[in-house]
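Hey, I'm writing a tutorial for new members on how sequence and structure tokens pair up, and I'd like a real worked example in the thread rather than a made-up one. If someone can provide the structure for the chain below, I'll link this post from the tutorial.
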Amino acid sequence: MGSEKEKMLAGELYRASDPELVAERRRCRSRLKAFNAQPDEEQRLVLLRDLLGHIGTDAFIQPPFACDYGSNISIGEHVFINFNCVILDCAQVTIGDRTQIAPGVQLLAADHPRDAETRRDLLELARPISIGSNVWIGGAAIVLPGVSIGEDSIIGAGSVVTRDVPSGVLAFGNPCRVVREL
């Protein structure tokens, strides 16, 4: 069966209250507090390298920034993430090269069982999020668990992305829908 962390990363039901997971979230909060308070960009990058699973060359995250674990986030080269980004990374969250993320965007890999009884048992799920290269995600957009966004696509501001978006399209709305090819 594995540890609760192994279950979480495998997309199986898990308990977020597991001591190992609680300790990892505490570690993350401590590093986020230091990152968000650090005025020096070079020092913030040092903190990000310690926090994230991967951060590419010339990637930049504008504080404040929030995430659950950090270690499950992979950010490509030349990525820009603006103010108030939230990444719930209880599953892998991958952001491709040259992607731009506007203020207030939420990438939410955390999910919950649809069955009320299972939710009452405080079990959770997680499904990975994948964002291709050269994507632009507009302000306050929300990307839900298990979604992939193809390279060169644009997600309009305020969109709620509930299903995969192909490469090279403009998509927006709630729920987010492809409007046209680019």
